[in-house]
Amino acid sequence: MSSRLQIILFTLFLSSVGIAVALYKGLVLDIPFTPNENTSIYRVGAKISFKANDKPVRVSLALPHEQNGIRILSNQPASQGYGYTIAETEHGARAEWSKRQASGEQAIFYNIDVAIDPHHRVKIPAEVLADRSDETLDGWDNQTRDAAKALLAEVYNHSSDPHSFTAELIKRLNATQGSQATSLFTSKEGYSLEKVIYKLLRYQGIHTRIVRGLKLEGGRRNLHLKSYIETYDGKAWQLFSLKKGKTIKPSHFFIWQRGGKSLLDTFGTKDASVVFSITQRSIPSKRFALEEAVNQKSTLIDLSLFSLPTSEQNAFRHILLIPIGALVVVFMR
Known about the structure:
Blueprint: H1 3-28, E1 38-62, E2 70-78, E3 83-89, E4 92-116, H2 142-157, H3 162-174, H4 179-186, H5 193-203, E5 207-215, E6 220-223, E7 226-232, E8 237-241, E9 245-246, E10 253-258, E11 264-267, E12 269-284, H6 285-295, H7 299-302, H8 310-332
Antiparallel strand pairs: 1-4, 1-11, 1-12, 2-4, 3-4, 5-7, 5-10, 6-12, 7-8, 8-9
Helix pairs in contact: 2-3
């Protein structure tokens, strides 16, 4: 093998390594190729308000899970004078605050920082958080139960699987001619359209869960989570709008709760409510990607200049200019 061919092969090898490293940084670690790119960080804040009655108080709030396309960065609970713990339940983590005695108007805050990351993927088992427990129509009077059973039988005859059954049920409950039946169900105390659909689907034996979340847009206050229904047909989950039926997850939609019976539980309180707000800030994409790579303990970052202090990084940058200068001299000669 001639020396010229050896040089060409060695050059191609080094070029391939450089291109592979650059692509890995850009596609896997999301380190930008241009210097002025920014990443939006959204802070989603939950404010829990309630009245305490000079009794022991306990507050429990469902917390979001990891999800595809959105990376959860950090969380900051704020509750002066309250004990705080994280409780793992059948349906996921819940934040719990407690206090031996409280009185008057109270407020508890929970903030979470998230970033939109199209490459972020989470492995979730197909049947995770399925609400399987048996459902009954207890609590409804005979007229309402008979109407519900008649509606379910009619929907069953016009559907072929759990997904089509759900779509048909939602359509009929939202149709003009079905408004009387809908009013009959929702007139029961504590029953919204969301709860009626959820109850009827579970009574039919369909694996069902409620999905609650909000769209990530900065500068929004006093928000309530938007609800969807998901059903499982034995192969995959399908998302349904309460008004339009089968749908897809909206863009930049952050799921706060998936499954579970309640968003907020309180004990020893009255008039409890939770509202959300969203603020947005931008940071350099390079800084964000490097911080995430360090958190993920990427080996490539540990072996790169980015793991060094800033002064040493600048020194090595100047040193690396020497072989580039030598290469320029070679070409000029």
